[in-house]
Amino acid sequence: VWNGMTLTEDVLAAMECSQPYLINQQVVVVPADVADQYQTEDSLADLAFAVEVGSAGCEMAVANGYNYTEVADQATALLEVASGTADAAIIDSLMAGTSYDQLTYTIELNSEEYGVGFRKGSDLAAALNEFLDGKYADGSIRTLAETYGVQDALVAE
Length: 157
Fold this sequence. Notes:
Elements: E1 2-6, H1 9-14, E2 16-17, E3 22-24, E4 26-31, E5 48-52, H2 56-63, E6 67-71, H3 74-83, E7 88-92, H4 93-96, E8 103-108, E9 112-118, H5 124-137, H6 140-147
């Protein structure tokens, strides 16, 4: 079992996967007082980004040709923006609702669906899908998501 993976074409070809249960995006976080200046991808070209080493945010920086510095984790990327040592960060939307009141996110650079992967040919993916369908139907998934503040990332119920 591999949990919390992005359901890419390669993953779907290599594993028996559950239905998506969560949607995440890589978003651009900037100081709130300049957010109006960074509403399009073109407006980001001259920024210096902080990104987590080896992350999907780093992949987005590379794919878009952005100037970036890799840091230990997404929390450090936010700290770099908050302290002014980076203009922006690219992080998961699930982390973008930060405790830094002076930061906000502007642009979603991609969208990712998360699911659970099993050995190819396993019937466990179908069993998990049935379980998830029941938990969506009885409201358990929504309640759990609200408990942890990720209700906006739920796949449409």
